[in-house]
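Message: Study each token:
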Amino acid sequence: MTSKPNVTKALNVFSIKVGMVGLGFIATLLLTRWYSTEVMGRFFWILSVATLLSAMFRFGQENELIKQVARSDSTEKVNILTSKLLMLTFILSMASVLIAYLLAQSLSHRYVSAVIVGAITALISVIGYTLQAKGYANTQQVILNLPRLLVTVFALGGYVVFGTHHALESLIAPAFVTGLCIALCCYMFKGFRFKASSGLLLTHKKQTINYLFIGVSVVLMAEVATILLGAIGTPEQVAIFAVATRLAYLVIFILLAFNSVITPQFAQLYKQHKLRELIVCYQQARVYSFFIAIIMASVFYLLSKPLLALFGEAYIHGQTVLAVLLVTQVIKVYVGSAGQLLMMSGYAVIQRRCINMGVFVLIISCCVLIPFYGALGAAMATLLASTVNNLLALYFVNKYLSIPFSLAKSQ
């Protein structure tokens, strides 16, 4: 297995992600211009909670789905595996939506919206994982990013037709339902179908618990700062932090592009005892990702003020927040896909411990720093927790799989 196909595929996925993230940037820019920071803060908070709920609804099955689908040469088996997880996700999602509906009188509208959006996001992501595992990573990127773009499209359409901006929260659910319909069409267009079968879980009980904790913890690492900032701080602080996070995310998506291509290969190489090829695959992805990330982070830091000013004068105060988050993303890219490698190589328990430590540090740091520093406190907590999590993961892949700490080739 040579590295050139991996690089080519990753660059293709990267180009799609550039396009989708570029559209996302424009969409966020338009929304921040149309709506106040308070409204945007509530909007970003709903999306963060929905992302967390989505991980819970998948019940820790996504990594096993990727592994089994990637190994399968039978379309019928792929249909069965995907249908199982979709049914499980649907049952858990609908149960949560029903509970939210029954408690609607005591819950605020944004909590109910978050549950509904989380349910739809979970179903879309399951379809995306199957497409990723079968080599349709570009399609996966489109269907995952499309729902959030549709929110802006609906907002623009409402303004053009009715001459007024509709309440942003009321547009989220319709946009995500439309995104789900498009995802289902893409899934069937690729030749896959839905097939009933017995059972819902793809893993045994112990694996399920491990993967569930890992899946939820990974999302907590990404979203809990926003969620806690919304609970402890103000919607305006959430808006500033969320915009800075999305700008900093542009640095990390090169790593995600490589991940979407090489993650299914980790399990195959490890199963075939091709450790040398696995290390080469991992290190080359790290090197390419890191140097691109360094360049991007430097450019974003130098242009932070004009970039943030595009979203509105209120967002200029997020310059320091953006700088801290850029450092966070560079550290992530330097470490590479260590967490994914641990899971795909049979060390899911160790990966869970690494993430749990990061989540623990993040929650404690947020509770301590946010009351004093607001959005900057959330950014500092994110940096500290991400460093702990990623360096622990790198330590263990070095210990068990001989992955070098540096970017140098393995000897």
Observations:
- The chain has one domain: 3-401.
- The chain is about 85% helix and 0% strand.
- The mean pLDDT is 85.
- The two ends are 19 Å apart (CA to CA).
